[in-house]
Give the backbone structure.
Amino acid sequence: MSTRMRDAGQSTGVAPEFTVDPAMLDAISPSGDRGGIVLGSGLKGEPLTISALRSTPTRIVLVGGLYLARQVALRAMAVGAWVVVATGRPAAWQVLPQAAGNQPNGRPSPLVQIRRLSPVDLPRPSEDAPLLVVTDGGPTPQDLFPPRSPWQTTVYVLPYLHPQAGATANAADLVLMQRLPPGQAELAARIWRLPPQMMKQLTTLKDDQVVALGRNLWRPLRLVTTAKEQQLLGPVRRGD
């Protein structure tokens, strides 16, 4: 898997290009510090971090509710990324500009942009200002903003698995899946060639549990939410 994941003190594959102190997540606002995204905790409570903002164009697929998608976007903001959201439900994403706050002149922060589902010019990503593009276009998303340059990560938000999303799912460097009903778990097993025990695990995840799936990676984890995130997003949940 090219999108790396690690826990504190123990690597699951190659060490990530970014690390982050979980304490910095208490300030959900753009930060000049470089860092990865703390995704959650392992079975022993250890923090799990992904290097989702990196020098390689990256695709991440999220299968689940808006809560997970918005939390990932907030975590990217916390480590200084530009965030562009292309969505048909802009009201659901207003928590991001709210979290980013205003510039000294009173204008909204340019680090967050909420756009319609149509092509637009994107900020030019760089090592000091990576770019997270969120495509919230339903179960069969259009590939409006494929990652073509270093330091750009495109996240595809899928409310549920659809057979026509198989190509998008297969092209992902990392897939994050919340609980699936049996029929969708069977589809996931076909797309990623999962054995029966993994397919069954997808149907039994709790509301705050996610499976991280990638090349040579199957990692159940528990979402960790800060007090500030709870104020913005509410309690951890599977749906919306």
